[in-house]
Amino acid sequence: MNATNNTPTPHGIHHREGQTVEDIARAPPGERVLKVSQNTQTNKLATSIGFVCEHGEAPLILALGPANVNTAVKAMAIARRKLKEENVDLRLYPTFREGAAKRFSAILLQTWKEEGNGNMQMEDEETDVSLTCGANSVPSQVAGAIAGKIREGYSVSIRACGAEAVSKTVSAVTFARMFLADTEKNPPESTPLGRVVDISCAPEFRHESVGSDGDERTILMFTIKVIDPRDAPMVSMSAEASGAISMERQRRLADEGNAAAATNAAVNNGEEVSYCQQCGAVFNRMSANFCSQCGCKRS
């Protein structure tokens, strides 16, 4: 491959512009990148994901904006379903991209293959807690609930319907990874779980009834898996390798962008508010029993 085709993106990833999927499948780690645009077809992207997975490490997917994130996640769900037939699962480790953190819709979607053990044709198992992320949800608040439940030892899933909701769910999982990594504000020994963890997620299509006429609609269910941080793919967590910003900076930007907005909204709505003893963020009805910034439980 000519070096001129190995094009740096503004986010530090080397996207093989003009190359075929076969070229990407043969590329070394860090260059096995699939880029999603407004013209990307979901089924074709799913086929590309599966092809790259069959020839080595799973790809990193670049997606900017809710519509493209939604396309990428749906394609991953399709590819995951097909890979399960070969006893291989596909997990997602999302992180925010450099230079676009405040928008929270510019995301690095690092996929990762896991060998299965047993029958993988069944749907993902039901979890202890099922959360819903909607188009109007605040990702950092959903993330606080995810992190809080994970620390308490519960299994968690998130349901989403629509492009905006799917994109915000991926952002919420990214925030939750940041919150769980923050051991200063939430020492692991002070939680029921008692250890530092990371998480991945896996999207799966589900059908649910709507109304009394028996109509159905398709949603995406994200099942969260708790892992040892040392087992997380380094590409998705390394700022140097992936163009991702550091967890510390992501967290700071999230605090700055959301704490003031949450407080003002609560006060303007006449809500009774209290504050997190760990980080000072506001508790209100939206954040329920978990801090919207650090995920710790309301005392």
Element string (H = helix, E = strand): EEHEHEHEEEHEHEEHHHEE
Q: Which outline best applies?
A: globular
Instruction: Provide the low-confidence segments as ranges.
Output: 1-14, 235-254
Biggest sheet record? 4 strands, mixed
Structure class: alpha+beta
Strand content: 15-25%
Q: Please tell me the total number of domains.
A: 1
Q: List the strand order in the largest sheet.
A: 3-4-6-5
**What is the averaged pLDDT score?**
77
Gyration radius, in Å:
19 Å
Query: What oligomeric arrangement do these chains adopt?
Result: single chain
- How far apart the termini lie comes to 58 Å
Specify the helix fraction band. 25-40%
Instruction: Let me know the number of strands.
Output: 12
- Summed up, the helix count is 8
GO molecular function, one term: nucleic acid binding
Give structural attributes.
single chain, 299 residues, alpha+beta, four-stranded mixed sheet, 8 helices, 12 strands, 33% helix, globular, disordered N terminus, nucleic acid binding, Alba-like_dom_sf
